[in-house]
Amino acid sequence: MKQKKLAAAIALMTAIPFAAQAQVSNNVVKVGVLTDMSGTYSDLSGQGAVVATKMAIDDFIANEKPNFKIEMVQADHQNKADIASNKAREWFERDGVDVATELVTTSVALAVMKVAKEKDRIALVNGTASATITNKECNDVTIHYTYDTYALANGTASALTKQGGKTWFFLTADYAFGKSLESEAAKVVTANGGKVLGSVNHPFPGTDFSSFLLKAQQSGAQVVGLANAGSDTTNAIKQAAEFGITPKQTLAGLLMFITDVHSLGLKATQGMYLTTGFYWDRNDDTRAWSRRFFEKQRKMPTMVQAGQYSSVYNYLKAVKAVNSDDTKKVMDYMKKTPINDFFAKNGRIQANGRMIHDMYLAQVKKPEEAKYPWDYYTIKATIPADQAFTPLKESTCALVKK
Amino acid sequence: MEIFGIPSALLGSQLLIGLINGSFYAILSLGLAIIFGLLNIINFSHGAMYMLGAFVAWIGLTYFEVGYWTSLLLAPVLVGLLGVVLERTMLKQLYKLDHLYGLLLTFGLALIIEGIFRDQFGVSGEGYAVPDALTGLIPLGFMNLPLYRGWVVIAALTVCFGTWYMIEKTKLGAYLRAGTENPQIVQALGINVPMLITFTYGFGVALAAFAGVLAAPVFQVNPLMGSNLIIVVFAVVVIGGMGSIMGSIVTGLGLGLIEGITKVIYPEASSIVVFAIMILVLLVRPAGLFGKS
Questions:
Q1: Three-class SS string for chain A?
Q2: Among partner residues B13, B219, B263, which is closest to A235 by beta-carbon distance?
Q3: ipTM of the predicted structure?
């Protein structure tokens, strides 16, 4: 009996610190938004991503009434991997940040993922496109949430090829991202019975695309695929119209955001196909959230900004559910919990960290079809979650059990 | 028909496009050359002035219904006036100091101006439509040339040679050149040299703004459009010879052509070919192709 009491006492004593450990450290969850605040990607993420994160935190506190505090810090990584990894290290080591998020630009995402792994914290990647994050470079503390190069190339290229765009010519930004976008798209074109007639690598960033567009014109391809992003894409689209390439040949923007369409206007972009993870005007839920975002930012959200909100909200839900900010516990919970909100339908985080969810094939409206501001897309098809992203068995991530 | 294994139609069209881009280089490097030649200022804010020109046109069209043709005159005047203010209040203080101070000041100004516009307008840029009178394509056989691009070449060349004529062949130009050669004596002869210098700086940046308006319908009007271009333009000035008026025009056009050919042969190198030539020229003729050592 005495022994039993002693055992119970020991058990109690060890259980107390154990219970304390299981709680949120310092009773504060710290979210660090590391994004491009002033460079090329600041319109598609930037300040809008910060606003979305704040909304997620405020909404979570209002809806879920957590027993822990939530703080947000933010920094501009200027699209430089060294700045980003230094900042992440400082956040994790000194400031007690639990999760680094947004992380647009492939080099930034890869650098911060490594620091997060080393310090056992979480990286929630939203703005970056590169599919290597959940393939060769994957790790068990990273979630790639919004979209990736595979999903975009797959959605747009297969839709256009199936519609009869059998011959393709690519304009490719001459760096890793552009090449991977081109090769993903080319695979899809060939798999659907199409043919790639040629491609040209243009310097990054470029301003005058007319030489390259003339090559595309002379190739006679039905579809000109733009394997680039940002101002390269917008300038190429604008000049394609100027040289009379469109509408004779179809342009396919392999990475386009609603901010690009907004900046070019519908006259220059009408009829283009693109794949997106989010469109504000898709249903009542997306409209309600987007209008709230618009109130604060005076712009409709890009898929990156909407994904930013959703990823942070679901991260906080996981912390509350496991009552801990311990990386492994939160990651395990997130990977086994389906995600369904205004952003993600049929969302699920795979073993490699890839959040798969329905993607949408959109076509840009004609100017006369747009009834109100930001009325830009017609959703042509929903690409189901399990077809939109790289099939898990093809993932080269070491975390995937084969 | 093929020339050096390249279909002649392709070569012809790329050369023509090279000439169009060369026109932009020529007009921008001309402004830089004038400012350097007459003021000894290395004007790093030139790209920002080019961007300002494009934005004045865009703001005019979007908010005040000021059309393209009016902007083509108005934007250079407004930006030129801004240049005058900057010269009177800031640059004036630096003439006696090393070149480096002028470079740093103008570089700082460029960062501030671009920062303000980036904050106000974002980085995606704004679209500016080609004016109605200049839409359409001219069929040339080997390519269809957009009418607007043809206009760019004509307008740029007219302004470039007009400027050259004014500086090299008129009395006003003679005053300018004399004023920089020996300001004291020219001043003693009753000519207002500080005024001449202010006018020159204003004129130089007005040229940049003019190029900006010309560029607006071709490129997205974007706060970063100047900084993307300015480094190449500096290379053009160095190759032509700092301060040489004709040198900057001829080199601008020539390098546009060379870039065009590079885009046919090896497109990946097209962004560095200008710099490769710059290194070669600096090794062989450090004062530049048209410069006087």
A1: CHHHHHHHHHHHHHHHHHHHHHCCHHHEEEEEEEECCCCCCCCCCHHHHHHHHHHHHHHHHHHHCCCCEEEEEEEECCCCHHHHHHHHHHHHHCCCCCEEEECCCHHHHHHHHHHHHHHCCEEEECCCCCHHHHCCCCCCCEEECCCCHHHHHHHHHHHHHHCCCCEEEEEEECCHHHHHHHHHHHHHHHHCCCEEEEEEEECCCCCCCHHHHHHHHHHCCCEEEEECCHHHHHHHHHHHHHCCCCCCCEEEECCCCHHHHHHHCHHHHCCCEEEECCCCCCCHHHHHHHHHHHHHHCCCCCHHHHHHHHHHHHHHHHHHHHCCCCHHHHHHHHHHCCECCCCCCCEEECCCCEEECCEEEEEECCHHHCCCCCCCEEEEEEECHHHHCCCHHHCCCCCCCC
A2: B219
A3: 0.81
